[in-house]
Specification:
It is a single chain. The protein has eleven helices and 18 strands. The protein is α/β, with parallel strands linked by helices. The strands form four sheets. The chain has a seven-stranded parallel sheet with strand order 7-8-6-10-12-13-14. Strands 1, 2, 3, 4, 9 and 11 form a six-stranded antiparallel sheet that branches. Helix 7 runs parallel beside helix 8 and helix 9 runs parallel beside helix 11.
Length: 402
Amino acid sequence: MQNYFYNTAYEAGKVIVDLHKGFVESSDPIGYINRALSGIEYQKVDLLIKSQKSRKISPKTDIGGVVLVHLKNQEMSAVLQAAAELSENLGVVYAEPNYLSDAYVIPNDPYFGDLWGMKKIKAPRAWDYATGNPNVTVGVVDSGIDHNHPDIIKNMWVSSNRRIVNGWNFVRNNRDSMDITGHGTHVAGTIGAVGNNHIGVAGVCWNVKVSSLRIGDNRMSLDAAIASIAFAIRNNIFILNNSWGGRFYSPSLKYAIEQYEGLYVVAAGNDGYDNDRLPVYPASYDSDNIISVAASAPNDRLASFSNYGVASVDIAAPGVDVFSLDLRGRYSRMNGTSMAAPHVAGAAALLKSYLPHLSALEIKDIILSSAAKLPHLAGKILTGGILDTDRMMAMGRRAKLQ
């Protein structure tokens, strides 16, 4: 896999359009779309996500739905022109290219070792409270998962109607969610590799369902990311891990995140920059249900590559020399905030399995409030601390007894 870098690449022939909230109440939604897209030549329109009439639309936004427009003109310049023209149309809040994001990972040569990160976040103590619950599902919004890996196959998700197995490919819109890069598989292993099974490693949450929500390979597409959120809403997937991002601000993606009532865990990025000054998305959105995660090293310092930000990055977790699953039954070490975020997503699943009644915002509050303060993280991130699953579970237990 190539080294991580930010980009403003986008896909030819596609524009993402945020429709006004009047779209939700329209008695003629197709006619509404046609009017909103007037002046643009297009092949077809896909609905990515829409506000539910049963839910009050957030006062923070005028968006009522997001559609993907497939243009007839496949030239790159046509995308920018169409986005500019559509943004001026009645019924349209905003239009943007279908941006492509990069996965947050810095590869290195694999070597053997133990799971120092699990000890650092005090997972063995947290496992005294719970080791998971198969009724909790974490969606791995990434490059897919190698669902045949012997250390995670028993934890792979199946839809409630049994029609969808393992997950979904949002790029090709089919059931092939198999990972071909290893990135998503590595992330999934940290979240939920089967524990206490005499095989390989253990995830933060031993007994959990992981859903393979494939939105790209080395690059993740914006429309696929939005569609994965809609899929999670339909299938009651409570936690989404997102180890990817870019510099572009997408109102469409922010809107989709805020439609989601689950916890949206994101990697902070690998440039060593201050996200407060140079934001990364989705990590830098101010959405209430986001936890933005920096990477820490074994010496309790911020990893040299990790982004930070007192206002925009919430907590740190192990992200250096993280040992986890790889393709075809193998294991490898990787670096990156990509590897830090799944420690937090796994911890959220562990807490949810112990206290199923907790909401996403309650889980976020407990995770951040229980962070272990570290001198070298003070003034760098919001909590000034690293994930501490022992304190997290203890705080949850006290709340349970009250």
